[in-house]
Amino acid sequence: MNKNEIMELKRKVDQHEKTIVQLMEILAATNRLLSDMKSTTEPPTLHITTKSLKFPRKASSPR
C-alpha cells in the first residue's frame, strides 16, 4: 500500500467510527425512551430533529 491508500483507509475507518458512535447514541436514547415508557403512564415527549441527527456524507469515489 502506498501512502495515499493508507490515508484513504484511515479516513474511512475514522468515518465508520463516527457512524458507530452516532448509532450507539441513537440506541441509548431509544433505550431511555423505552425505559421511560415502561415507568410512566403518560407517553414521553420525543425531541428529535433533523439537526440533531447528523449523517456522514458519502465521499464520491470513481468506479
* Rounded Rg: 18 Å
Q: What is the makeup of the main sheet? A: none
Strand and helix order: H
How far do the termini sit from each other? Answer: 19 Å
Low-confidence stretches: none
Give the beta-strand count: 0
Estimate the strand proportion: under 5%
Shape: rod-shaped
Number of DSSP helical runs? 1
Structural class: mainly alpha
Q: What's the overall average pLDDT, rounded?
A: 80
Please estimate the helix content. Answer: 55-70%
Label this structure with key terms.
single chain; 63 residues; mainly alpha; 59% helix
Explain how this protein is built.
The chain has 63 residues and is mainly alpha-helical. The chain is 59% helix and 0% strand. The radius of gyration is 18 Å and the shape is rod-shaped. The two termini are 19 Å apart.
Quick summary:
The protein has one helix at residues 3-39.
Topology:
Blueprint lengths: L2 H37 L24
